[in-house]
Amino acid sequence: MDTRKPPQDFTLRLRRYDPESGEAPYWDEHTIQLEPHRSVLEGILQAKARFDGSIGVRCSCRAAICGSCGVRVNGQPGLACHTHLGDAIKRSTDGKITVEPMGNMPVIKDLIVDMDAVHWKKIHRVTPWLIGKTPVPEREYIVDRESMVDVTQTMACIQCGACVSDCLSMEVDPGFIGPAALAKAYRFVGDPRDAEQAQRLKDLAEDPNGLYNCTHCFKCVEACPKGVAPMNQIMRLRRRAGADHHIDDRNNGHRHEAAFVTLVKDGGLLHEAELLPRSYGGNSWFGKFAPKAGAELVDSLPAITKALLRRKVTPKAALFPHKLAKSDLKNVQRIYDEVQGREDRYELNLYVVGDDKDNEPVAGAAEGSTT
Amino acid sequence: MKVAYWPGCVSRGFTPELHGSMALVAPKLGIELVELDRACCTGAGVIAEHNQELADTLNARTFALAQQEMKNGAELMMNICSTCQGAQSECQERLDANAVYRDHVNETLASEGLKYEQGIANKNFLWVLVEDLGLDKLREKVVRPLTNLKVGPFYGCYIVRPIDRLGIDDENPRDSYLSLVIEALGGTVIDYAGSHKCCGFPIITMKKEASLKMAARNLGDAQSADADCIVTPCPLCHLNLDLQQPIAARLSPTPLNMPVLHLPQLVGLALGLSPKELGLQRHVVKPTAVVDWSTSVIAGVGAGAGAGDGGW
To answer: Residues 44..63 of A with a Cβ closer than 8 Å to B: which?
Structure first.
């Protein structure tokens, strides 16, 4: 951002709320004057210094590393100190910058939320420390470089709570362990020094509020100011739980995944009518006869009958799935066999390896070194 | 305009009215659909969750098939499913970013004589409407403007996040295109809290109650904002919002009755197609408000309809 622009006026619309007062929340507006490359946090602090000392905001480092100043700016969660006023005003719909406390956590005062009540409680849930292997080696543990690089993405987390704020699963289901804590769980599941990888995964897969409660909405990926991409870490936990440890959890998580992958291999296209019963009953044609699949069928009857009545789903379509032509299906199955037959999964993590464009030597720099 | 067309699985399975309405709407817009009937399921993120390389290779195969059509005059690859878009964009991001990885994946494709070349243009119908067809051209084609029809947009997560991967920026505000299209068709856009949220579908088998609560909340939000219907470019969202609505309603504090339209259906209505041609009678939630609207418009212009079958 251009740092040469002169100071200008910005109007901040702050959500004010003091639960102890018994008063309802309200919006407060203050116009501050700062250069556009300054942060929203600096704007709030100026408003606090010049107009109203009672504005509640938590902050410390002002350099996007302590994770204290998580808020929502124009509805988008992030760090107030990491958001330029100039960018924030561009995303505003009415020329004012709206600042609210983060969501999914109770407000203590104004922009300060209770991180202990939600975020930290969930972090503690995943045993966020290393459980060392025994016997303890005489000297240090030796770890290969790749496996430590693999967990660096989760280690970048600064515990600001931005991902927790906007988690859509947690919004309807506050019990969900959530993105920050599950990313933290991968920090230890992915660490070769940890002795309890299988136990950790089993615990998270079997928990009805755990691994399979993530709805894949990418909100946390978008929210994170540090590129942790919590949802990607959740998917890696699922890969390890299912493919490496074959944990057949009670939440249908692994069965659903296995059924999906198998059905696409069998037909090239997804056969939805078969996916649901198999997810409940087990990944085979007989899955639909399992008691759990039957119970689910009964529960869903109102939807199923209507769909049949309206000819949305025909019995023919439900029983005889659409399939690819034989020659194409054979090629799809060949890809399955080849890739699944590899000794190790090839998992490209762009956070670690970067884009080809990022890795190109800079032309100017190379010339500079030769002269 | 010729496009390599990927319809996806659900549009040919549980939401046949989507594929059907797209086939009717395309010629009216001057879009020629060359169906990629040799391509397989995108994996909807689930195959990637199981094995990333497998998903990337399967989708690279689809891209390569589309690129063959593009050599024969197709301008781009088009889909009609937010989830397909998101799952494919994720794979494309990895394939395009890293030449070593791309070569590795292409090696698997080689025995079929296919090769993916970096940088395919793959767009949802929604993006094609705004960026390639253009809103002015769309406006010209409207014969029955959606006057007084209040429509709530519902995007589906996969087509709005993450913004970098999906090419959403100031120049291409793709996360606001539904509003632009509704306006271009003459309708009224309803702003409500749920438009960019999750329909809950991905966890319907794992945590049914939470999944349906999400659907119920979004539908309820649209209802209290006074929408006549919701429109979505995602058939999976349609399953949770329409097919499951009677069950989601059990978890809603207010009764739910919110019709959910597929994007090509909404466009089709404005282009003069009848609700029946567009398969609206197949929905679980009867789009009565929409059908009543369409018949009242016809009656209004003196077409003499509106009687008898009520537009069905």
So the answer is: none
